[in-house]
Design goal:
The chain has four helices and six strands; from the N terminus they run E-E-E-H-H-H-E-E-E-H. By secondary structure, the protein is of the alpha+beta class. The protein has one domain: 2-Layer Sandwich (NE0471 N-terminal domain-like), CATH 3.30.2020. The strands form two sheets. Strands 1-2-3 form a three-stranded antiparallel beta sheet. Strands 4-5-6 form a three-stranded antiparallel beta sheet.
Length: 107
């Protein structure tokens, strides 16, 4: 069975997720914004002639998430402080950003 979040928390600089398999993840706002899966952000990555949504340096440090909304039973939507809100982060996608650590087998 694929792990699913049992708790999602908005932290001052990250989103924390507690997974059903016991794994805990912490995703920085910078990482989540850089990996935004929305069509606009994805097209900007492939088209170098468009302006980037995520400027480098000063603004990156000022990124904030003002709300986290559940999308069905499969994803979350982040509402960013600058109004950006079209990215839907599936649980599978989030988990792929930070895979489970290697489990140690007791000897």
């Amino acid at each position: 069975m694929t792990p699913h979040p049992t708790q999602i928390e908005r932290l001052p600089d990250a989103v924390g997720v507690q997974w059903s398999d016991g794994h805990q993840s912490k995703y920085s706002y910078q990482l989540l914004r850089q990996k935004c899966p929305c069509a606009r952000c994805q097209s900007e990555k492939s088209d170098k002639n468009l302006l980037r949504l995520l400027p480098v340096d000063p603004l990156v440090k000022a990124l904030t998430v003002v709300d986290i909304q559940l999308v069905g039973r499969y994803a979350i939507r982040l509402i960013w402080g600058d109004g950006h809100k079209t990215g839907i982060y599936t649980f599978e996608f989030l988990r792929s950003l930070q895979p489970s650590p290697t489990k140690t087998v007791p000897s």
